[in-house]
Design goal:
Largest sheet: 2 strands, antiparallel
Helix content: 55-70%
Shape: rod-shaped
Number of helices: 1
Strand order of the largest sheet: 1-2
Radius of gyration: 28 Å
Order of helices and strands: EEH
Length: about 70
């Protein structure tokens, strides 16, 4: 769709071809806008779920103990 040539006619280009092309571009843009809207909603849902999980995790899990560099099992 980036480049498109229309058939030449007496007064420029074929208006029917132009209108059909405009309709296809319009449909594609509408579909992309809907996809962006749905993805934005999904992003917001995931962001809220992550924030809720982090809040729950912070409440239930004690902070990690301070360990010396070589004090672990390994």
């Amino acid at each position: 769709m980036r480049t498109r040539e229309f058939a030449a006619c007496r007064r420029g280009v074929d208006r029917k071809e132009v209108r059909e092309f405009q309709a296809r571009v319009s449909d594609a843009l509408a579909m992309l806008n809907e996809t962006v809207r749905l993805l934005s909603r999904e992003y917001d849902r995931i962001k809220r779920a992550l924030r809720d999980w982090q809040t729950m995790h912070a409440r239930k899990c004690p902070p990690p103990q301070q360990h010396h560099h070589n004090s672990g099992h390994w």
